[in-house]
Every structure is written in C-alpha cells, then in structure tokens.
Amino acid sequence: MERAHSLLLNEEACSQLGEHQRAEFVFEWLRFLKKLLPAADRVDVKKNQKCLVEQLTGILIGSPGPPTRWLLAHCLALLYRVGDSLTSSHTVDRCNDIIRSKDDSPSYLPTRLAAIACLGALYEQLGRLLVNTFKETLANLLKAIKSAESQGRYEIMLSVEKILRGLGVSAVPCHRDIYKATRACLTDRSMAVRCAAAKVATAYRFPPSS
Fold first, then answer.
1. Which helix (H) or strand (E) holds 152?
2. pTM exceeds cut of 0.90
3. How many distinct structural domains can be found in the chain?
4. Which residues contact 173 (CB under 8 A, 6 or more apart)?
5. Do 117 and 135 fall into the same domain?
6. Which residues contact 100 (CB under 8 A, 6 or more apart)?
7. DSSP calls for 4-34
8. pLDDT tens digits for 127-150?
9. What secondary structure letter does DSSP report for 129?
10. 121 & 142 share domain
C-alpha cells in the first residue's frame, strides 16, 4: 500500500489491481491524503489541485461505499480549504446535478449519497465562501429528501447539519424550510434518520439580539 502514499492518486498502480484491491487502494490513498493535505506545501497543493479535483470527482462518480464517501467528502473540502477555493462552486454545482439526476437505479445510489456527503463537507469547511450557492443547494436537498430512502434521508440530514454549522447566521433565510424537513425526520421510522435530525435541531445559529 506504500504506492498509495502520494499527493496524487497513482492511477497506473491502481489500474493494475482487481476490483476489491482497487477499492482498498483508493481508500488507503484517501486516508493518506486526509493526513497529508493540512501539512502539505500550499503552493504544491495549488499546482496539483486541478488533477486532484479530477481524481476525487472520478471517485465520487464511481459509486463509493460509506467509509470511502465520507473520507472523499472530507478530502475534497480540505483540498479547497488548503488550496484555491475559487473553483469550489463548480464542484457544488456538479454535486447538485448528481442529486437532481432522474436515475433511480440501485447502482447510482452510492454516487448520489457521496454527492450529498460532499456538499455537507464543502459547506462545513468553506462556510460563507459558498454563501451565494447555499439557497439552491438547500432547496435541492430538501426536495430530494421527500422521495429519498432512509439512507438518503440520513445523509441529507447530516449534510444539512454541516451546512448550518458552516454558514452560521448566513443560513437564517432558510431556517423555516429546514425546520419543516427536520420536524418530519424527527418522527422518521429510521432511528438513524431521527438522530441525524436531532443534530440538525441543535445546529441553528441566530444573529445576536440588538
């Protein structure tokens, strides 16, 4: 697994592995990247950022499993925080497009869940840098939750909590819509969804009273 310990994913080494080994290789690379990015030279990160975004996006659309998608989301957000954040809105748009997709096949679900996780991480890490896109993103997530299965509702609630924490008082205009969705999820048949909704209920931030 030493070949997975590099800033960029070693695509040549990865392509020579079987399906399960490839998944392990990608996971190990993401684990390494999570530790590397905070300590990496910012100039080096910016120089490789375009390629890194492409590689991470490739993992996103490759139907990653739960542990991989959470690591992926963290690394993608960390990359924009450490490197150049200017193109982060493009990744937000890409994730929103994935969530809007009409593809309801089981094989597409992991990609949709990964996109939801990435949105939460991006807003949590970048906060108000993405303030111009958050209304559209929240509207998209709250629309998707109405037809989502329990796993999707769970990921959306986790993502909404992170958006609230990242944006703070800037999210106030959407509090009412979030409250409606959260209230419904607090009585969801899935305990995981109820727990995630409870976290959302504690994440509201209000402007200081005058």
1. helix 150-167
2. yes
3. 2
4. 135
5. no
6. 140, 144
7. G-SSS--HHHHHTS-HHHHHHHHHHHHHHHH
8. 989 999 999 999 999 999 999 999
9. G
10. no
